[in-house]
């Protein structure tokens, strides 16, 4: 039997998820109210919480998305991001969080109406609870990196889109301007999107053609 000073003390395990969407020509993150006095009063943070004894971290993040922001895991893309283990990241005690990156398509993002949840432009964030600022910054870096060599951006678009929509998504995330001709030549040349031979409705000008990704899953390519 261990002596008192030798007894093992374990950190509590949690999960937090950074959910991104593209709305109003901006990359936005889903925030919820955090009220944990005396440490946090009417603050904001990303969805998350503790991992239950009978859960994996994947199970945990799915549960928190469903219960706290009303998102079903089947409707979004999610991947493990990084483990955040700073000693004092949670003022209540020793908590290690497994962060996740989630991408929400427009139809789902526009149908979240919970009172304590809202989409916030990533360039207009106020200080957040815990270390959620750092988690979001890490998620942005991951997203910007991965869309240059995968088709991960597909999860931020509707199933059918125009080449303008696709280029705009890249420009919003990367915060840069891409040459229209070169971008379209690259995307079509790689064979990762296919034309649907029908046009997008609406607008005063000639309607643009609609496209979709060839594969149902994200694929690895050198895109940018």
TrEMBL record:
Residues 17-133 form the Nudix hydrolase domain. Gene3D superfamilies: Nucleoside Triphosphate Pyrophosphohydrolase (3.90.79.10), Winged helix-like DNA-binding domain superfamily/Winged helix DNA-binding domain (1.10.10.10). Residues 155-213 form the NrtR DNA-binding winged helix domain. InterPro entries: NUDIX_hydrolase-like_dom_sf, NUDIX_hydrolase_dom, WH-like_DNA-bd_sf, WH_DNA-bd_sf, WHD_NrtR. PANTHER family: ADP-RIBOSE PYROPHOSPHATASE, SLR1690 PROTEIN. This is Uncharacterized protein. It comes from Candidatus Ryanbacteria bacterium RIFCSPHIGHO2_01_FULL_45_22.
């Amino acid at each position: 039997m261990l002596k008192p000073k030798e007894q093992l003390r374990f950190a509590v395990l949690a999960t937090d998820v950074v959910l991104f969407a593209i709305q109003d020509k901006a990359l936005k993150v889903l925030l919820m109210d955090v009220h944990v006095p005396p440490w946090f009063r009417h603050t904001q943070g990303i969805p998350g919480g503790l991992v239950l004894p009978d859960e994996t971290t994947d199970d945990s993040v799915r549960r928190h998305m469903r219960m706290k922001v009303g998102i079903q895991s089947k409707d979004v893309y999610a991947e493990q991001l990084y483990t955040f283990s700073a000693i004092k990241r949670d003022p209540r005690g020793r908590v290690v969080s497994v962060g996740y990156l989630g991408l929400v398509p427009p139809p789902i993002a526009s149908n979240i109406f919970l009172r304590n949840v809202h989409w916030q432009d990533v360039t207009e964030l106020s200080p957040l609870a815990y270390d959620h600022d750092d988690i979001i910054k890490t998620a942005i870096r991951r997203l910007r990196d991965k869309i240059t060599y995968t088709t991960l951006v597909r999860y931020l678009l509707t199933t059918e889109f125009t080449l303008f929509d696709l280029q705009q998504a890249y420009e919003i995330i990367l915060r840069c301007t891409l040459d229209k001709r070169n971008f379209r030549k690259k995307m079509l040349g790689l064979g990762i999107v296919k034309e649907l031979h029908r046009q997008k409705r609406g607008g005063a000008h000639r309607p643009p053609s609609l496209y979709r990704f060839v594969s149902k899953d994200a694929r690895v390519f050198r895109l940018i």
